[in-house]
Amino acid sequence: MVGFCDSNVLKWAYDRLCIPAECYLRVLWCAAHPDAGLLATGSGMNTGPDPDPVDPIPYCVAGKTTRRHYVYLKCLVLVSLFVLLQPLAAFRLRPIAVEFARVRRLPLSHRCLNMSTTTTITAAPKVETPFTTGAIQQDANFWREYIASRPSPSEDFFRVIQDYHTSHGDPSTAIAHDVGTGPGNIAERLLRYYDRVVGSDLNQNALAAAPHLVAPDLVSRLTLVHSAAEGLADAGVVEDNIGGGGKTNLLTVSECIPLLDAPRALGAFRSLLRPGGTLAIYFYGRPIFTGGADPARLDALYDRIATRICSFLLPFKGTPGFPIHQRAAEALFSQLDSIALPSEEWADVVRYKWNPDFPLLFNSQGGYDFDLVYVDRREAGETTKEIHDRTWWQDEWDADRIKAYLDSVYPGYIAKAGDRYAEVEEGIEEFREALGGGAVPVTFPVVLLLATRK
């Protein structure tokens, strides 16, 4: 027993195995007195099981089942094995052998019948979300095509935001922050109005592409931050010198609010903004065809193809990502009226809706396996402005541009489509014929929410 009680062994048992000396010595005493069983304690005999057995691992000690005795035996075995494996240490090996022999002589009822445990680790289920899952792995080429295929907000749109900002609250233009900046195309546009712009995104590949896609003479005034929108207010994510700690003048949320946990995200945005700072949330939807021989036929043809593509991504319902799909569809179906801007936190709320007779959704109900529900969380005192303007954000699109737009809206769908992808190719060729091989004017439904931070 002397070798076991060596101070070096006791210190190692405590430092490396977190075994208190009292516990270790009690095990040794029990091993040296097998006839007394392992139930003896300093205060007498414990004749019952532990009052709160955490691990119901079966083993018997003098006919009694206790968790503590299993731990004691395990401690003894661990320390003893360590000593045996280090013959060069100044530990006496003969006492070790003696103590092991004594343990081996214990009656069967004194021995541990099952000293093994099995831990099952279940991998977290993969969560697929609208757009983000397909876009997260894309390289700079995808983001270059993304910018080329997506509608480009008109300068009049940015003037609406800027006119609101300069006429409400604090009109300073030192720092703007574009949330969901992707490859930085909207952040670049904001640099025309603000001294410095921060672009944040969850997608690190998109951020890596941004410096190669933004004009070289503007990059020095652009700071990129890798973060989820909901975590932007966390300590150290956005430094004070780039708008953290309530120093941001304008915060835009570009084409991503349906994907976010809106209450948490809005809390983070409010923490970044100065009192009197401006929040601008916007989203654009599907193209509206305004030219050609039969614009209504083109609208229906687009919807048929987009809805079929969305169906390739099913199922949504019953999957880990379903709450996000449902939240996103709800926000778009509701034209962002589901996004609440509480009056105790935000003032002068204005909701612009351009071309609201068309949905913000990229496809119709047939692309979903759940019902779409309109939700209205607007408060009294807010202003909603509906504007029907078929020249808003107007552009010219041909069949290839339509295909590129669909590829950017549903990244990764081709792999899921498999042989069904032929249906999309046939639809695009039908589009090409309907367009006569040329291009036609398009516009978009656009919703813009403006609010001043209280």
Alpha-beta classification: alpha/beta
Order of helices and strands: HHEEHHHHHEHEHEEHEEHHEEEHHHEE
Strand order of the largest sheet: 5-4-3-6-7-13-9-10
Low-confidence stretches: 1-7, 9-19, 34-72, 81-116
The first-level CATH class name of the largest domain = Alpha Beta
* Tally of contiguous helical segments: 15
Could you say what the CATH architecture of the largest domain is? Answer: 3-Layer(aba) Sandwich
State the CATH topology of the largest domain: Rossmann fold
Description:
The strands form 3 sheets. Strands 5-4-3-6-7-13-9-10 form an 8-stranded mixed sheet. It has a 3-stranded antiparallel sheet with strand order 8-12-11. Strands 1-2 form a two-stranded antiparallel ribbon. Strand 6, helix 10 (262-272) and strand 7 (273-284) form a beta-alpha-beta unit. It folds into 2 domains: 7-110, no CATH class; 133-453, 3-Layer(aba) Sandwich (Rossmann fold), CATH 3.40.50.150. Mean pLDDT is 80; it is low at 1-7, 9-19, 34-72 and 81-116. The protein has helices at 7-17, 21-32, 67-84, 93-104, 132-135, 140-149, 155-167, 185-190, 204-213, 262-272, 295-312, 322-333, 399-409, 413-417, 421-434, and strands at residues 40-41, 44-45, 175-179, 196-201, 222-226, 248-254, 273-284, 288-289, 346-354, 383-387, 395-397, 440-443, 446-453. The chain has 454 residues and is of the alpha/beta class. The termini are far apart.
Would you kindly provide a brief summary of this structure?
The protein has helices spanning 7-17, 21-32, 67-84, 93-104, 132-135, 140-149, 155-167, 185-190, 204-213, 262-272, 295-312, 322-333, 399-409, 413-417, 421-434, and strands at residues 40-41, 44-45, 175-179, 196-201, 222-226, 248-254, 273-284, 288-289, 346-354, 383-387, 395-397, 440-443, 446-453.
